[in-house]
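Researcher: I'd like a structural prediction for the single chain below. Treat it as a standalone chain; there are no partners to consider.
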Amino acid sequence: MSTSEHTSPTRSAEGPEASRNPFVAILRFVREVIAELRKVVVPTGRELGVYTVTVLGFVLFMILLVFGLDVAFGWLADLAFTVGGPGA
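Model: Treating it as a single chain, here is the predicted structure.
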């Protein structure tokens, strides 16, 4: 047998002294949000420009890819389902 204490899975990570007051929980949540927001790194103007161009380039590529596939599959469907072949 183990000599370690058994902790209940319903207990919070802070231990038995954790408060059940909802205002304390809200205050703690707000403090943690502020702490996480302090870790955010804002990109420089140059980085923002590079990211913008990269995203727009990728979006343009995807538009052209989907358009090309649409035209190709439309042509294949025309070829397969038109009676008498193309130009009939």
